[in-house]
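Write out this protein's structure.
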Amino acid sequence: MKLRYSAASPFVRKVMVVALETGLAPRIERVPTTVAPIQENPDYQREHPLIKVPALVTDEGAVLYDSRVICEYLDSLHQGPKLFPAAGEARWTALRRQALGDGLCDAAVLTRYETFLRPEEKRWEQWIDGQMRKVRGALDALEADAPNFGNGIDIGLIAIGCALGYLDFRYESEHWRSSRPKLAAWYEKFAARASMLETQPK
């Protein structure tokens, strides 16, 4: 398998955490891929029409995207404990948490695009404020839910962990821990997992 890869992407990191947790990482070749909203990449667009990372080329030659699809595909390939619960409340909880973690990342990435890619005189401050309201609202919801996270791992907790890691990487000045002690305490333990340490962006 081949993974279109950017070490700075929290969505790529989520895929790699799943690959490591499931023991599939040795089967995946990482292909460094640079994408940006304002850059053309016609060669890559023929493979992935949205020109985003990650994308996974399976051993059979199919191209899968986005991170949610890739992660569930990888989870179907191993015989160990599943990261996507099969049914019932556990499944819906894990998927809801994945959606919240991914949504936090979406808002943070869009804010970064607006702040660092758009010329200063054209930046839309109300847009930035709106996206950061989403980030902070997600963090507050996660703080309320953190006592229920436990010590296990599933796709929801992986998505949340990668989202918090992205904030540490790109938004250090946000100081998200200062008013969210329960979430901070959970993340300190989760971030110490070998899969999280190996995929930490630099």
